[in-house]
Amino acid sequence: MSDATDRETAFQRARSPEAKAAREQAILDAARALGAERGIRAVTLTDIADAVGMHKSAMLRYFETREEIFLRLTADGWREWTPVLSDRIAAASTPHGVAAAFASTLAARGPFCDLLAQAPLNLERNVSVEAVRAFKLTTGASLARIADAVRETLPELPRTAAADLVAVATSLAGTFWQISTPPPEIAELYRSDPRLGHALIDLEPRLRRILAAYLTGALAG
Question: 43 with 31: CB under 8 angstroms?
Answer without folding.
Answer: yes
